[in-house]
Write a structure and sequence with these properties.
The protein has 327 residues and is an alpha+beta fold. The protein has eight helices and 15 strands. It is 33% helix and 26% strand. A hairpin with a 2-residue loop joins strand 11 and strand 12. The chain is globular and about 65 Å long. The N and C termini lie far apart (52 Å). Bound molecules: adenosine-5'-diphosphate and magnesium ion (MG).
């Protein structure tokens, strides 16, 4: 009798494992395509989990959006040079981490790049290179050293009038991390939050395999390098192949060097593997500005972080622990 109960339990347990399936939804959030995948026992649960993630990402969007004039981020920008603004602890800490990444990358990454948005447009509307004068003027308002945080009151103050911050290079990664964290806390065993190529994963597929990500060569879209198992958690690719301009035969991407005011060139795409999508997102953007040599050098110094860079000639450059032949 006892034995048969045990056996039934074992059978039930096995049945539960095999009943697990992936549930997936694609939708537009933060102005980008999001694919949310969860592993759950039935579609009711799967959908409820996805709903939770969507709600979380929407809340984050309301906090960090530069388009919504009422967001806390917009309030900070509207009060640049005027007064400090008290913000939610979540936003305060995000800005604090962004400043740490600025220091780590010698200012290549800088959320105050945003005032340069006024002169550089990467939507096809820009027909000629902005003047040297305009570029010099815009870069005067840039500098993470002028973002002042007050730990006690949780206020953020942009010191210079006309200064602006924006989370274009870190926001999607941040949202992916937060959605993952929430679902993990609800007991979701595995999933992927993919924010237009900025993704964080956890657990394994129901068949026991790691999640895999395809790394493609943007210069030859048909030719994927292969499927790479994701063990570290997050993988982020920077390089929006639509957002660039060409002047005098040189291709400039939408990532701007905060120190010179000029968009970066030379790199087509940068993929970063890291434990968190936020860090991977920020570093992928920074690599464009730092360039191949400094970029790889910096990545090699950070534990558990790796990168694959493709330059504008189609050459592949990787950090120390990535062996492209094995991919
Ligand atoms: P994508 O996934 O679109 O390639 P990235 O994560 O590479 O995006 O971020 C690019 C965006 O980051 C730009 O569109 C702009 O909003 C912002 N940005 C541009 N230059 C910088 C910079 N030097 N530091 C921080 N953010 C930047
Ligand atoms: Mg980024």
């Amino acid at each position: 009798m006892k034995k048969s109960i045990l056996l039934t339990a074992a059978v039930l347990f096995t049945a539960t494992i095999y009943a697990q399936q992936t549930y997936r939804r694609t939708l537009k959030l933060m102005g980008s395509r999001f694919d949310i995948t969860v592993v759950a026992n039935d579609s009711l649960k799967g959908n409820a989990y996805i709903d939770l993630a969507v709600k979380k990402i929407s809340t984050i969007e309301q906090l960090i959006s530069s388009w919504d004039a009422k967001s806390q981020t917009s309030l900070i920008n509207q009060n640049a040079g005027i007064k400090p603004i008290k913000v939610d602890i979540e936003l305060f800490n995000l800005i604090k981490r962004a400043l740490m990444i600025s220091k780590l990358t010698d200012g290549a990454f800088d959320i105050s790049y945003a005032s340069m948005d006024a002169i550089w447009k990467f939507d096809g509307s820009m027909k000629e290179m902005p003047s040297e004068k305009a570029i010099k003027a815009s870069v005067k308002k840039v500098g993470y050293q002028n973002i002042l945080l007050d730990e006690k009151n949780h206020t953020v103050f942009l010191k210079l009038k006309g200064m602006k911050i924006g989370f274009g290079a870190i926001g999607k990664g941040y949202a992916a991390d937060k959605a993952k964290q929430l679902l993990l806390s609800k007991g979701v065993v595995a999933g992927i939050i993919n924010a237009s190529g900025d993704m964080n994963t956890w657990g394994k597929q129901p068949n026991g395999d790691y999640w895999k990500v395809a790394i493609t060569n943007p210069l030859n879209k048909k030719n994927a390098f292969g499927l790479l198992p994701i063990k570290h958690g997050a993988v982020v690719t920077s390089g929006n192949y639509e957002k660039y301009v060409t002047f005098n035969g040189k291709r400039y991407t939408h990532i701007i060097d905060p120190r010179t005011g000029y968009p970066s060139s030379g790199i087509i795409s940068a993929t970063v593997f890291a434990p968190k999508a936020e860090l991977a997102d920020a570093l992928a953007t920074s690599i464009f500005v730092m360039g191949i040599d400094i970029g790889i050098n910096r990545i090699n110094q950070i534990p558990n972080v790796e990168c694959i860079i493709i330059d504008d000639k189609g050459n592949i450059h990787t950090s120390k622990h990535i062996d492209i032949e094995k991919i």
